[in-house]
Design brief:
Chains A, B: One of its GO terms (molecular function) is carboxylic ester hydrolase activity. The structure is a homodimer of 284-residue chains. Chain A is an alpha/beta fold and 284 residues long. Chain A has a single domain, classed as Alpha/Beta hydrolase fold, catalytic domain (Rossmann fold, 3-Layer(aba) Sandwich), CATH 3.40.50. Chain A is built from 11 helices and 9 strands. A 9-stranded mixed beta sheet of chain A has the order 1-2-3-5-4-6-7-8-9, sandwiched between helices. Chain A is globular, with a radius of gyration of 17 Å. The model of chain A has no long low-confidence stretch (mean pLDDT 95).
């Protein structure tokens, strides 16, 4: 689980973007990920370097973020490594569903307890254990300076993994997260399939509920950006529940609403620099 | 030909990206394009604004550049409109070829004289007449301040259209252009299909040959970026022929080679800011 296979690489913005595969014990399969390593991390002697983990949304693979987010200019400037894993295990022998919001491409960053998902859909353990182990064994990534961010389903993943594993991550932010999946159709469908009727488990993977219980307090601030023309705003994302929970918990939350912006990577590329800077400052 | 149909729009980097369709007399079909209009062009009173036309490469549509180039941050900063048209007419009644380098997605920015391409594949006339007319009738784009750039097949298009229509464009640049298509397999295949054996016509669409004849001299400088790990460098792109031609013609050419960079949009996104600034300065 510590070795990685290098699939391809691209030079980009004074750094190198690697596409890798590596075997995961958690998902019992070979997982895809991308890793951007800025030149400064290769040539400077003060390695290891801070690392931002990016969790993508429904239907994404390890390379939507790499092509569309425009994140690497700022990451090079600040000397930040960025890791973007796939959103689920994949392949012919892995369970799947024809829908875009369940199965391959829709792992929801949780450990499934139900058939047919349980053997491979162990995304919480994959992201928090196997991915970190594989990255830190092969790249100059600092185990003491990890941040996590993501978009939509990945925003949910970033918030909940950070809250459930605060010892792993020093900074957390999100774009248009599914703020309370146990109250949103996407989350309800996925949680029912992956977790069954265990509603205590549902709550453990619901950012707004976790935050209301004060489990986010290890973070000095959480940055969330949300477009006001996002078609999923009211029914699926519900950022107001996150705001209410933060107020209840006394957790500082910098929630920024943006007139006119939607749910696409056009929205992400418009504000990614601010998130890179937010993590860069906290991981310095 | 002056009316456009608005298909969709996205807010991005303090501006709006519109996807449109409009009827072209040249291609006798409905053409797709994207237009980024920065807010400054909407609110400032000193309209109209400088406009950069971006021509994409083989297989691209009107939205590869929009998602992958990361161009709009700098365009917003400088108040530049960016127009990215499709690479050919498209649809069920339009002639096509199964290959990726001929037919739909591969118009090569020339006017075809041969069947079955002649009725619709009139991309030179489309880009230089119908596209400009449609854009300038519907957006605050300044007819006196147009620049043109592009990638690969679109780099060839930018160079040759600028040289053949210097009254239309005040600035020109390219990423990894097919510098001498009449000497490259991609160009030879396309020119034979679209232009037949008329080798005078081939020369009119070959940037290195045009430049060697001194036809590029209206431009104070031409910026070209080329990755040294580009797999098409030697057989298809041949930037050395452009450099020789520029020396012969006394045309200033800023040819920048970049160690490690390939032919992808990772290369483009790494240097797009420099091109936006190059055009911004000349179109100010």
């Amino acid at each position: 689980m510590f070795s990685v296979e290098f699939i391809s690489q691209h030079r980009v913005y004074d750094g190198i973007l690697y596409f890798i595969r590596h075997d995961s014990a958690a998902t019992q399969s070979s997982m895809s990920a991308s890793i951007f390593v800025p030149d400064v991390a290769e040539v400077r002697t003060d390695a290891p370097f801070p690392t931002l983990y990016w969790l993508s949304g429904l239907t994404c693979t390890a390379n939507n973020f790499t092509e569309k987010a425009g994140a690497y200019r700022k990451a090079s400037e600040l000397g930040l490594i960025i890791v973007a894993p796939d959103t689920s295990p994949r392949g012919g022998t892995i369970a799947d569903d024809e829908a875009h919001d369940l199965g391959q491409g829709a792992g929801f960053y949780i450990d499934a307890t139900q058939v047919p998902w349980k053997p491979n859909f162990q995304m919480e353990t994959y992201i928090t254990q196997d991915l970190i182990a594989g990255i830190e064994a092969n790249f100059p990534a600092d185990p003491k300076r990890r941040g996590i961010s993501g978009h939509s389903m990945g925003g949910h993943g970033a918030l909940t993994l950070a809250m459930n594993h605060p010892h792993l991550y020093k900074s957390v932010s999100a774009f248009a997260p599914i703020a309370s999946p146990s109250r949103a159709p996407w989350g309800q469908k996925a949680f029912a399939a992956y977790l069954g009727n265990d509603h205590a488990a549902w709550e453990r993977h619901d950012a707004a509920i976790l935050m209301a219980k004060g489990m986010a307090t290890p973070f000095d601030d959480i940055l969330v950006d949300q477009g006001l023309s996002d078609p999923f705003l009211e029914k699926q994302l519900m950022p107001d529940l996150l705001e209410q929970a933060a107020a209840t918990a006394g957790q500082k939350l910098t929630m920024r609403y943006h007139e006119g912006y939607d749910h696409s990577y056009y929205f992400i590329q418009s504000f990614i620099d601010d998130h890179i800077a937010f993590h860069g400052e906290r991981l310095r």
